[in-house]
Specification:
eight-stranded mixed β-sheet; disordered N terminus; 4 domains; Bacterial polysaccharide co-polymerase-like; alpha/beta; five-stranded antiparallel β-sheet; 15 strands
Length: 770
């Protein structure tokens, strides 16, 4: 396949949004499962604790019972009022504030006080409680109950008003009123320690509300009836007085009614109708006369004009004229314009035009006569109307007074009728009282708390949230190295191995001592042999199939690969702080290489803390310093491991040295290493840590590569970053990082493939059968 095509395909795959989402989801699930795997114990403890709190609450909390009654509020009144206030063609939404007003009425003190009075709740200890007790009485109360002695309660000295206020507070605290969704239904709830009491109180509140509505309507109707009756009597007197005034005025001014109208008004209307009809006829006659005058200006009237005049004479003459004109045109073209026949036809056409003109004059004179007659009729009717109007103007003053009196009388009568109808309605309502609300659901008691399932689910959910929160916090503050991925992403270098924590093995220590003794007996010489009494420094030889040994094989492979690229014989092992296991890593790496038939020498270069010299070269009287000073030959200072052939050069210090860095950076130490290069495949040097001293940095010019040891789960990330940044010469030559003293059981929570079962079935048993 073409390389460019392959890169394009790979680029498309990397930018695929579905692939990116899948990878993001996979990483999220991996992080979540990793968090649960690492912190599950903390989460379980917190969930168990919150669940226990929920269980204690359920066991100590008494049962609570609730009851609910439901009221339906009639919406007819609200709708009727709204329809009266606005036009019918405009949509008006229902005023739900009226429903919320009824909710507040139900919550009012008046309803509660009515229930308290009807049920005598001010006398019920469950509602009024007792007077406040002192601290001593509160403490001694449970003791008196346990001892069986009845406590003598002091008499209640509160007044009736105070007891009523106490009962009111209890009732309002245990009562709930709400609206059911967007409906006209009100929900009345009550909570008590007894189901029958809860149902009784809810129903009593509903009944008290209905009674209050009935009483309110009755009182309102009664007061309205008294006021309406007085007002009706007054209006009746005023309407009768107004009618008498109208009658007296008509008699005094001699005004006669014709039906619902006055006589003078009827005559004016008739004259106006006649005047309009006469003017219409005159206008029509004048239009016809004007039309005839326009036609008379034409030589020959056209067909439309003749038809509009409805004159058969003109129509006939015009027809003959048109026939003669057609013949005249034909003869003129055939015989010439001066032919006798043509001249004769022209003479006949002239006579026909004269006849049509005479007929039009006759019609015009007739129309003119009709116009004069219509004009005279209009003038006569107009004169009569003006005379009558001038006559009626004399009595207009009297009619104005009559109109005012009649309007006043009508107003009194309409008000009187309206008040009389309202009085009849209120009288009927008073005799048959109804309310705008009624109970649609009677209250029945049921246990409402504590809800075991909800409380336990809430405590478990809260415990999970709190547990995950604590787990996140714990992860955030856990700023130590625990996985390969952390090392490689933070330090930008390879993690060569994760080594498990070693335990002291008496069998391994005694075996190492026996091997050294046996080697001395077999050789029969005074050659010095290493003795690993605690079994830490040569565990890879004693337990070659362990996970510990397999980690060092990974380190050896990395060193071998680096040696193939560039010279990598001298390897320094260091760390950030003391006690991270660098000496154990240095000795076991050297043992493994030597056991693999490599020529290896291990040098204890930690001149401040001679860990290897104390563990492998017990009783040594000469070492590295004596060799560098020329006091002893290298051969006489080196120890040998009989099992692997490893050479070990200890360090013997008679007094504390102040400038150990000068020794490791000295020319004599460089010459020693140069002399060892041809004879050994690897030279492993155990160097001091970076934090307390600068000895390791002093060896940068003679060390080929460094192995940096970090204690798993203990050394802080910022400490490692700080010291590596401060020692760039060491960081540039890093072969890699080794995580030591790892807790494999705990490590399995961070990287599952480090679990014991995984190693048992895949790593340790591979190549050794099942």
């Amino acid at each position: 396949m073409d390389v460019r095509r392959l890169s394009t395909i790979q680029g498309d795959y990397q930018t695929d949004p579905f692939q990116s989402q899948s990878e993001a989801l996979s990483r999220l699930l991996e992080r979540l499962t990793g968090l649960i795997r690492r912190q599950y114990l903390l989460i379980v403890i917190i969930v168990a604790f919150t669940t226990a709190i929920g269980g204690v609450y359920l066991m100590t909390t008494p049962a609570v019972y609730s009851a609910r009654a439901r009221l339906l509020i009639d919406s007819g009144t609200v709708r009727a009022v709204q329809q009266q206030m606005v036009p019918s063609n405009i949509y008006v939404p229902i005023d739900f504030s009226a429903i919320m007003t009824q909710v507040e009425v139900l919550k009012s003190d008046s309803i509660a006080l009515t229930v308290i009075k009807n049920l005598h709740l001010a006398e019920n200890p469950a509602f009024v409680g007792r007077t406040e007790q002192g601290l001593l009485q509160v403490l001694l109360g449970p003791l008196t109950k346990l001892s069986g002695t009845a406590a003598v309660e002091p008499p209640d000295t509160r007044s009736e008003a105070e007891l009523t206020r106490a009962a009111l507070g209890t009732l309002q605290a245990q009562r709930t009123v709400s609206r059911v969704a967007e409906t006209y239904v009100l929900d009345i709830g009550y909570t008590a320690s007894n189901p029958d009491l809860a149902a009784k109180m809810a129903n009593a509140l509903a009944d008290a509300y209905i009674d209050d509505q009935l009483d309110s309507k009755y009182q309102t109707t009664r007061r309205a009836n008294v006021w309406l009756l007085d007002r009706i009597k007054e209006l009746r007197t005023q309407a009768a007085a107004a009618d008498g005034a109208v009658f007296d005025y008509k008699e005094k001014n001699k005004i006669v009614d014709v039906g619902t109208r006055l006589l003078d008004d009827e005559q004016v209307t008739q004259l106006n109708s006649q005047l309009v009809s006469a003017r219409t006829h005159m206008a029509d006659t004048e239009a016809r006369l004007d039309r005839i005058n326009e036609i008379m200006k034409q030589d020959v009237p056209d067909a439309g004009t003749a038809d509009s005049l409805s004159s058969g004479v003109i129509v006939g003459l015009r027809t003959k004229y048109l026939d003669l004109a057609a013949r005249e045109h034909i003869f003129s073209e055939r015989y010439g314009a001066n032919h006798l026949a043509v001249v004769n036809l022209r003479t006949q056409m002239t006579e026909l035009r004269r006849s049509m003109a005479d007929e039009l004059n006759r019609i015009a004179e007739s129309q003119k006569s009709d116009y004069e007659i219509a004009k005279a009729r209009v003038q006569a009717i107009k004169t009569d109307l003006e005379k009558f109007i001038s006559k009626t103007q004399l009595i207009n003053r009297d009619r104005i007074g009559l109109s005012d009196l009649e309007t006043k009388a009508k107003i009194y009568h309409s008000i009187y009728d309206a008040f009389l109808n309202r009085y009849m309605e209120t009288t009927q309502q008073q005799s048959f009282p109804i309310t705008d609300a009624h109970v649609i659901t009677k209250a029945e008691g049921y246990q409402s708390g504590p809800n075991t399932h909800k409380i336990m689910a809430a405590t478990i959910f809260f415990g999970l949230m709190l547990g995950f929160g604590a787990a996140f916090v714990r992860e955030a503050v856990d700023r130590v190295f625990r996985t390969r991925q952390q090392v490689e992403s933070i330090l930008r270098t390879n993690c060569l191995a994760v080594l498990p924590r070693l335990s002291t093995s008496a069998t391994v220590a005694s075996g190492a001592s026996d091997n050294a003794q046996t080697a001395r007996q077999q050789t029969g010489t005074a050659e010095k042999f290493v003795t690993d009494l605690n079994g830490f420094f040569s565990r890879v030889v004693e337990e070659p199939r362990s996970l510990f040994a397999e980690g060092f094989r990974s380190i050896k492979v990395a060193a071998d690969i680096a040696s193939a690229i560039k010279e990598n014989k001298i390897i320094g092992v260091t760390s950030s702080v003391p006690k991270e296991g660098k000496s154990t890593v240095a000795s076991n790496l050297a043992e493994l290489m030597a056991h693999a038939s490599k020529r290896v020498i291990l040098i204890d270069g930690d001149l401040r803390n001679l860990t290897l010299s104390r563990g492998l070269g017990r009783g040594a009287t000469a070492g590295l310093l004596q060799v560098l000073a020329g006091q002893i030959d290298l051969h006489n200072a080196v120890y040998t491991d009989p099992r692997s052939g490893l050479k070990f050069l200890p360090a013997v210090i008679e007094s504390r040295l102040a400038h150990t860095d000068e020794i490791l950076a000295s020319k004599s130490f460089r010459r020693l290493l140069d002399a060892l290069r041809p004879d050994y495949d690897y030279i492993i040097i155990d160097l001091p840590p970076l934090a307390p001293v600068s000895d390791a940095r002093a060896t940068a010019g003679i060390i080929d590569s460094y192995i940096y040891v970090i204690e798993w789960g203990r050394t802080k990330i910022n400490v490692v970053q700080h010291h590596l940044t401060a020692a760039p010469e060491v960081q540039d030559r890093l072969l890699g990082v080794v995580l030591s003293k790892a807790d494999i059981k705990t490590l399995a929570r961070y990287e599952q493939y480090y679990g014991r079962n995984y190693y048992k079935y895949y790593d340790a048993r591979y190549g050794y059968g099942s």
